[in-house]
Structure prediction request, 653 residues.
Amino acid sequence: MPFVNWLKRNLVVIAGLLTLGYLLLPNVVVTVFSFNKPKGRFNYEWQQFSTDAWKDPCGVADMCGSLSISLQIAAFATIGATILGTMIAFALVRYRFRARGAVNSLIFLPMAMPEVVMAASLLTLFLNMGAQLGFWTILIAHIMFCLSFVVTAVKARVMSMDPRLEQAAQDLYAGPFQTFVRVTLPIAAPGIAAGALLAFALSFDDFIITNFNAGSTVTFPMFVWGSAQRGTPVQINVIGTAMFLVAVLLVLTSMVITNRRNKQKA
Amino acid sequence: MTTVTNKNETGGDVRLSGISKTYDNGFTAVQPLDLTVPQGSFFALLGASGCGKTTTLRMIAGLEEPTTGTVFLGDQEVTNLPPYKRPVNTVFQSYALFPHLDIFENVAFGLRRRGIKSVKKQVEDMLELVQLGEQARKKPHQLSGGQQQRVAVARALINHPKVLLLDEPLGALDLKLRRQMQLELKRIQTEVGITFVHVTHDQEEAMTMADTVAVMNAGRVEQLGSPTDLYENPHTTFVANFLGTSNLIEAEVDTKNGDDIVLKAGGGKLVLPESRCSAPTTTGGKVLVGVRPEKISLTHADDAGEIPEGRNRITGKIANSSFIGVSTQYVIDSAVCPEFEVYVQNIERDSRLVPGADVVLHWSPAHTFGLDAAQDIDAGVEEGAAA
Prediction:
């Protein structure tokens, strides 16, 4: 009976911890196995602790080159998709134009389309246009599928913006450009940032569309896939863990900065 | 930016001539309207929601383009100037403070956009004027409603506009704070001497604060005047009912007696000074006779002989009475009007004045007003009560 009571009282906490474990266990495995010293070519069984891979992250042929390509594509795709997506979001929320309703739904099409189908169709399109497959075709494809996500994120923010704020800015001697730069953009910034982060993450680990349209270019996800056929170097786990750490560090820094700012103000 | 404020310029009257607004969907919010707001005055546009008062204000601000007519600020025509080139500033309904800027930067916004470099002193002085000196580095959401309201006023006033426009600025505040802010705004207006145009649906607010009130209804100005003038001498049934409460009786013109008109109503006679009648008075014509509930004295029918000569009288029966504290409000059932309202000050309470008692209502002819009988007798009743 006491146990049942204890369970009742702590049910929420237990459910929370279990879900968190479910969510984080794969990340823990990635991190733990980055310190493994596998016997064969496959890093699937724990052998012994070692920091070899961390000391020589680029020790695997071509891996760091593919990582660099992936980072570049992700950066450019983020910039392109964020600029275009933000403009589309503003147009959809702020202006009444013909076919606005149609555009509003069509913008979600790339999200709904099965990725493999999209990838194959894109390849057909590029081949028919006689485009040289490689960095640029990947970038074009990535901007395309990131756009919908950016539009969704920015639109939500712009819709919740009070149009009177811009009127107030105009009333206070800010012309159209000043109003946009001083009021509209800063207030929409969280939505734009969320869209940009989403775009970066989506672009960085996209495999299917990239694989179809890459030609001879190899991105990091393609490299991992390719090496998994022949053996998985520990360095893959090192890169994965490093990315994870960078993300956590960024989140922590921003939290510390906001906290400190709030404390100064209060 | 050369057209922006020049506070040394004289003649800051706001002149609207023939101004109207019809929206794309065909709805006419403001009928052609002429209005002059004298420089330095506290002017209120009063009306129920949808009467066109906010649209009129927004046309002065430049946030709404008039369909016809012109807007003058002093000698300058501003009809086609965008809002950022007009020397007017607005205190928006729900304030519209910039959430990403702190209080200091909110207040400095207008100065900075006009390229003024040293804003610190001015902003600090302005925050002092609205008693928010301590809050300069806080963000808007950290302030209470009343404080946000004062920031909105400071943010507009710091630019020394020719006219300050206030769009229901106190609507979001609770009653007590609203009363306090009314006095505060009045104080600030007296201190800075800038023309205030204040839009409100609260008749009490308009009367307490403004020098001149324009009562608007269905896109038209019903009547314009000082609060006492509007209250004591309304010209339309809408004004009579919207501002406070009025008893209106249908009557027929009988004879004229010098400056007075004698009217027949329900078998009795009522006297009305001709100067207080806004309707044409031909013998036999219909007129609506009005009197405010607090102008009426209530005497028990047994003492009817003590009522002085020369007062307007009506007999009736008390239908209902409610004790308010400072006064008692009676509803009297009379032949001319089934629900005659009378407010009696609680000085010496007559214990015979209870529901069912026969009474005589009497008041001075000088407190009577006459209105055109062709109007809806109940115009403005509900809107006035709701406000």
